[in-house]
Amino acid sequence: MKALRPPMGWNSWDSYMTTIAEEDVLANARFMSDNLKQFGWDTIVVDASWFDPQAKSEAYNDAAQGATFCLDKYGRLLPDPVRFPSAADGSGFTHIAEKVHELGLKFGFHVMRGIPRQAVRENCPVEGTQWTARDVADMDLEHACHWNNDNYGLNQAHPGAQAWYNAQLDLYASWGIDFLKVDDMQAPFYPAEIEAYSQAIRIAERKYHREISLSLSPGTQVATTNIDFLRRNAQMWRISDDLWDRWRDVYNQFSRMARWAPLQTPGHWADADMLPLGHLTVNDKQGGHMSNLMPAEQRTLLTLWAMSHSPLMMGGDLPTSPAETIDLLKNPWLLEVEANSMHNREVLREIYDQENKFNKWDGASVPEGEFIVWAADATGAAPSSCSCEKGEKCSCGSGEACSCGENSALTTERGSYYAACFWTGPTQCQQRVDIAAIVGLEDYQLGFDLTKWKVTDLWSGTSGEAKLDGRLLSVTMPAHGCVWLRFDPID
């Protein structure tokens, strides 16, 4: 099953934007293999404009104004052979994928929805059909991407549109990819395009006998009512616009992930976007910068992403990021919570202000911040053996059509829990919370002695302090910080 747990990897956008080169990809892959693979990090993704010979870090080149890209005779994008020398023989990303696989990692890259405008200008044939790019393109600019002019859309009413995607995926699957990030799919939401891409991936998977995970972007105003459709067609989908190293961007994900966390299931993950940590924008005129997020904010970001089962895709350049950043990524609890927790949920959110000593918010004063508590159950059993798609015969051997399609049958060993207490205000804050909010009333009423818990600080005391006194958990959190804990009952 694809994406059994939320993917953990590296994406080149935050560090290299449009100027990523082969040597950069392999340097990050080697670093990940040597330092992070054992902690669950296993995917390398090349983001936008890998096909553009004139790529510049600060902006996209405009295909509507005549910018030309590297295409094959069928109008399919090829890597720029100057930045990616191993592609000069026409084999695309084959050699890079092989090297990444040799390191025990997965490889993927970014594409835009639709068909290149250049392919339409040159009227390239659609491989294996009697049609051309002009036949299948949707040249209505209302249906084109509004922030990137690389492509036109595809006329999904034309049979050649699916043939175009099939041919594109056939080429990319032949290179040995494991992951495809497809952009301009959700803002606005293009269900026909998403289904067409999903179908093309399934065809390529059967031919090349390898799995390809589909990630959809961006995520502006993606509604939870789309959940069933998204689960049928993708492994990851963004739930926000681009996230950068600004506290307001991190803060805005709290409410989004509170909506999406109850809907997370193995194989299908709402994505809070890349982690803007470490060395960012390395190819800008200033040589890049280190993340503007403070240490407490970085831990808050990672904790929220893990507790909400968001994929973790590192954005900063791994080899040149500070040791402190890499140490955060090495926290083994990130993988443990991503892979072995369930019922992840926000359980409490209250507004407080400093004037009233964080006891309440009276509605008149300016609120200082929010005290937010998340909880999750620690799981003990492996995921269900079900690996089928909804409607297919279930792999359990019953011979009946699968009714779940989510492969989400996890069980829990009663008694162990995760908790994350967040404070969004700009000054240190102390709060108390009834532990029943974390362990649930059922365990409380069944006679658990709430004073007998082993409490493990998952950030090793670097993010704040916690003390359990009877049924009350007292926490001290730094500005924009958190306390991340595991509770295990003591016999």
From TrEMBL:
Keyword rRNA-binding among record annotations: no
Keywords: Glycosidase, Hydrolase, Signal
An example molecular function term from Gene Ontology annotations: hydrolase activity, hydrolyzing O-glycosyl compounds
Membrane-spanning residues: none
Keyword Ribosomal protein: no
Cited Pfam families: Melibiase_2, Melibiase_C
Alpha galactosidase C-terminal domain segment(s): 445-487
One GO biological process term: carbohydrate metabolic process
Family: Belongs to the glycosyl hydrolase 27 family.
The protein's name: Alpha-galactosidase
Source organism per UniProt: Aeriscardovia aeriphila
Lineage of the organism: Bacteria, Bacillati, Actinomycetota, Actinomycetes, Bifidobacteriales
